[in-house]
Amino acid sequence: MRVVRNIVILTGAGVSAESGIDTFRGGGGLWEQHRVEDVATPEAFARDPDLVLRFYDMRRSAIQEKQPNEAHFALARLDREWRGDLLIVTQNVDDLHERGGAGRVLHMHGEHLNAWCTACDVRSRWTGPLIDRPACPACGERALRPDVVWFGEIPYRMDEIHDALRHADLFVSIGTSGAVYPAAGFVRGARDLGAQTLELNLEPSQGSAWFHESRLGPASEIVPAWVD
Ligand code: BJW
């Protein structure tokens, strides 16, 4: 087995579940209350922007009251102490990795606390509601949308992610169902290139068979146990 120097960690909604942020799939998941097609596609936004903006305003306001949990803190410790390359690629749009103290974080599905101006293409920090159509701080147009990646859109910074995966000795997936591509395909790519692969999740994910090892349990317990 090769020596581990470079680590890529993929996180999903399960890492924030114990902070009180709903996951997407499964019992009680967000998609049980809202059809994906109604709220998380560019077509939905074009058809009913008020519905989509209200959905994201509600979630943006809720995450600001949530706190990082032991899984976020453990990953931040690893980030601080690991001397090799390390990248936390998160599918989450919350900021709990950063508030937990992690620095090397890449948000491939965007961030709730950013708005994207479709008129001038500038992204700005945005913590308030978008339903009232506020003006873009850069160009003044009322064309802000949540800076998140919807189905059918291309996730962010894919070149950087692929580059990190190419050099990874260890790929760890935490709290994600493996239902959404391209993130669901990272394990196969990393493994084909020789990385060891580890899954930490409450239950086996859809891609479980691709991992060399799976450890099951709540993230707040199994992530610190793995890190420490
Ligand atoms: C715990 C726990 C605890 C609970 N402790 N664990 C190939 C095949 C088929 C389809 C496609 C394909 N490639 C692309 C597609 C289309 C599509 C897709 O994947 N569809 C599938 C449904 C099949 N993908 C796309 O459209 C993507 N774009 C794309 O592919 O562009 C083409 C392209 C890519 C690359 C280069 C060039 C071109 C875009 C996908 C965008 C996803 N957007 C969302 C919404 C973001 C904004 C928002 O928040 O509203 O992202 S959807 C939603 O799913 C969100 C999440 O990031 C994402 C993943 O969900 P996640 O994190 O896995 O959550 P859950 O709920 O599914 O799972 C939670 C897990 O945690 C579970 O396993 C629990 O057991 C566990 N858990 N509590 C530990 N306490």
From TrEMBL:
Record: active site: H109 (proton acceptor)
Xref: PROSITE patterns: SIRTUIN
Keywords from the named record: Acyltransferase, Cytoplasm, Metal-binding, NAD, Transferase, Zinc
Localization of this protein: Cytoplasm
GO molecular function annotations of the record: NAD-dependent protein lysine deacetylase activity
Catalysed transformations (reactions): N(6)-succinyl-L-lysyl-[protein] + NAD(+) + H2O = 2''-O-succinyl-ADP-D-ribose + nicotinamide + L-lysyl-[protein]; N(6)-acetyl-L-lysyl-[protein] + NAD(+) + H2O = 2''-O-acetyl-ADP-D-ribose + nicotinamide + L-lysyl-[protein]
NADP in keyword set: no
Residues annotated for NAD(+) binding in this entry: 12-31, 91-94, 175-177, 201-203, 219
UniProt cofactor note: Binds 1 zinc ion per subunit.
InterPro entries, sorted: DHS-like_NAD/FAD-binding_dom, NAD-dep_sirtuin_deacylases, Sirtuin, Sirtuin_cat_small_dom_sf, Sirtuin_class_III, Ssirtuin_cat_dom
Domain Deacetylase sirtuin-type positions: 1-228
Main location: cytoplasm
Cofactor(s) the protein needs: Zn(2+)
Keyword Zinc: yes
Binding site residues for Zn(2+): C117, C120, C136, C139
Entry binding sites for substrate: Y56, R59
UniProt-listed Enzyme Commission number(s): 2.3.1.286
Pfam families, sorted: SIR2 (PF02146)
Family in the record: Belongs to the sirtuin family. Class III subfamily.
Comment, domains: 2 residues (Tyr-56 and Arg-59) present in a large hydrophobic pocket are probably involved in substrate specificity. They are important for desuccinylation activity, but dispensable for deacetylation activity.
Role of this protein: NAD-dependent lysine deacetylase and desuccinylase that specifically removes acetyl and succinyl groups on target proteins. Modulates the activities of several proteins which are inactive in their acylated form.
UniProt-recorded name of the protein: NAD-dependent protein deacylase
Organism field: Novosphingobium anseongense
Lineage: Bacteria, Pseudomonadati, Pseudomonadota, Alphaproteobacteria, Sphingomonadales
Gene it is expressed from: cobB
